[in-house]
Design goal:
Order of helices and strands: EHHEHHHEHHHHH
Radius of gyration: 21 Å
Helix content: over 70%
CATH class: Mainly Alpha
CATH topology: Rhopdopsin 7-helix transmembrane proteins
CATH architecture: Up-down Bundle
Strand order of the largest sheet: 2-1-3
Number of helices: 10
Distance between the termini: 60 Å
CATH superfamily: Rhodopsin 7-helix transmembrane proteins
Length: 291
């Protein structure tokens, strides 16, 4: 990155009392994020009756949430605890966009999965078999990698000769390119075009899928509509990933969203909720027998 190799973050606040409070709150939220998403992944992997495309995608969503949160939160906690708030931006920027793009694409795939399951149930086993699901996940990681490489390359190709202070708690494209010593107009257009194409395409696909699903539900029974809506709402309620530079909004998408996802998926899914409850009861029973 030219003469500048590291950037300095201003962080969330310079008030030491707030730093301690934020550290305790975000540490607890990060631990809950890890535990909640790992619990969903383990439950799905080790429960044969959940070996379906929907739960396969759900376990991948939990994995992405863990990765997405781990890209920014540990470094943020370090910044709240210590005065040193420097980082080499390239790695964090790359993985931030990789997992953000992967999540958007996965939500789109999950919408397509529900569309086929509800609107073409007879063809579902052939259209969405596990081989196809694995191929779709491979494609989303490949697309996410390409997107992230483009964003990273367009950012690091600029010349950075100072200043190197970012008014944020993590490394993202918009605040970084503001520090470039060269004209960033063309680079900014390319970056926004790249992100906008993916975001708009996925948004239109999501809206189209769920619109068709809602119209098709009119022909189903009340119980069928309830189950279908419950599943679709769980997917639609998962907050979309944002690349916002605003601190408050960024905290929501990097800290709160990965925490909410497992609770949304679990509380609105009777099968996972019942299995987790059974596992919990079995653990309590085994613990009592060992005493």
């Amino acid at each position: 990155m030219g003469e500048v190799t590291q950037f300095v973050f201003l962080g969330l606040t310079d008030n030491w009392v707030l730093e301690i409070l934020f550290f305790m709150a975000f540490s607890a939220m990060y631990v809950l994020t890890l535990r909640g998403n790992i619990l969903i992944m383990v439950t799905i992997v080790f429960t044969p009756c959940l070996s379906t495309p929907m739960y396969f995608f759900l376990s991948n969503l939990s994995f992405i949430d863990i990765c997405h949160s781990s890209v920014t939160v540990p470094k943020m906690l370090e910044g709240l605890l210590f005065d040193r708030k420097t980082i080499s931006c390239i790695a964090q920027l790359f993985f931030l966009h990789l997992f953000a793009c992967a999540e958007i694409l996965l939500l789109t795939i999950m919408a397509y999965d529900r569309y086929v399951a509800i609107c073409a149930p007879l063809h579902y086993p052939n259209v969405m078999n596990m081989r196809v699901c694995v191929q779709l996940v491979f494609v989303l990681w490949l697309a996410g990698t390409v997107h992230s490489l483009v964003q990273t390359f367009l950012t690091i190709r600029l010349s950075y000769c100072g200043p190197n202070v970012i008014d944020s708690y993590f490394c993202n494209v918009p605040p970084v390119i503001k520090l470039a010593c060269t004209d960033t107009c063309l680079t900014g257009i390319l970056i926004v075009s790249n992100r906008g194409t993916i975001s708009l395409s996925c948004f239109l696909a999501l809206v189209a899928s769920y619109t068709i699903i809602l119209f098709s539900l009119r022909k189903q029974s009340a119980e069928g509509r309830r189950k279908a809506l419950s599943t679709c709402l769980a997917h639609f309620m998962v907050p979309d990933t944002s690349f916002s530079t605003d601190k408050l909004v960024s905290v929501f998408y990097t800290v709160v969203t990965p925490l909410l996802n497992p609770f949304i998926d679990t509380l609105r899914n009777e099968e996972i909720k019942n299995i987790i409850m059974v596992i919990s009861l079995m653990r309590v029973k085994v613990r009592n027998q060992n005493r």
